[in-house]
């Protein structure tokens, strides 16, 4: 069950956050007649999952009492968080910097993010330092009984709160620019955008400018164009989405220009996102309306299609897939991923030519699907041995080949908690070799669909890999992830500890509690 917030100590800025020791978890298995995979089509068998750590000999830390994460995770054995922290204000959004992965930025909001009030309420942006530290671990009694006395190592984060930046109103969204990794924008519940310049190495942000673009309205989300440095979009609570022209220098207040005002709906516009090529802008409204806008021939803006039948209730989230920076761009079908107040995560296929697109899969996440954060790219398994343990970023390893088959999402689903969703080829699909015994030749269609030599499509589906249950009844509204290379505490190659790849994840609830946890792909 969830951990009570009052049991977690608070820390002062600059003071490392001490780990919290969990009680030993109890392992419970689902009855045979129970379907733990609540999705359509039927998901993969648990036989394809790596056994969780609690079924293997345990390793205990020597240097401190930091709990170790499970070796892997599944719906049967949820991962156990190994680091927690209690914030002074309820968080609303969290982002890791892709340029400097030791930087984690958290926005706070006194109101629930799905019910913000357009009034001034003191809030803040909090900058954390997340360091990788190698810690020694040793085998427990079961290992010693097998004559295993070796000391091994594992990588753990050390969390330090560095800077608290006061803001005049609630923070509803945070975005780093894809063109300038030091540029950070925060959207406020009072219709204001705040631009900051991250100061690398000092874990603080310098204010650049303030822009009031919709006084008395909430700015629910913000999106940078991935192809045009001076183009951005903002989703507003008055039913409109603004296309903004960014100046070359963002040091002057109110220097943004509103190029276009798109009338989306009579209800609040919750999310906006550009396609990977920047030619489309997608908007999602609280009345369930999705609209595709053509933005490739500015100043002409054209509505390509709209649909209000995807969800039974209002939309809360929308992102394009594959996401910008994903290694599977051009290798799989393009899609729109949506979330709603109806607790559903849905997949709209953008490659079939249907307008509006068809819903090809849905999944019940048991809570409002508030945030969908793409999991960062992982290196291919053969590259792992040559990499150092710790957080992995493609920007720091441009020569490392990325794995297009290991992709997914981190989901914040309010009462449904934190989730890991992975996008994998359907496990029931079997592709036979040629009858003459020659090699299989895979090829890709013009719309990015992977085919085999006989023209059969290699289908992919979303799977609910793992849930975190330690938030209890608190609603999870913020999440993000990092790619991680860690030591395997059990197995060795040529006398050295084997390394594993996976994701370090953070989920944050409205009680102000953040949990760090970890899953591995192999």
Automatic annotation (TrEMBL):
Known catalytic reactions: diphthine methyl ester-[translation elongation factor 2] + H2O = diphthine-[translation elongation factor 2] + methanol + H(+)
GO annotations of cellular component type: cytoplasm
GO MF annotation: an example: diphthine methylesterase activity
Coiled-coil residue windows: none
E.C. number(s) listed in UniProt: 3.1.1.97
Disordered: annotated span: 1-23
The keyword Repeat is annotated on this UniProt entry: yes
Listed pathway(s): Protein modification; peptidyl-diphthamide biosynthesis
GO biological process, one term: protein histidyl modification to diphthamide
Keywords: Hydrolase, Repeat, WD repeat
Family: Belongs to the DPH7 family.
Protein's recorded name: methylated diphthine methylhydrolase
Organism: Ascodesmis nigricans
Upper taxonomic lineage: Eukaryota, Fungi, Dikarya, Ascomycota, Pezizomycotina
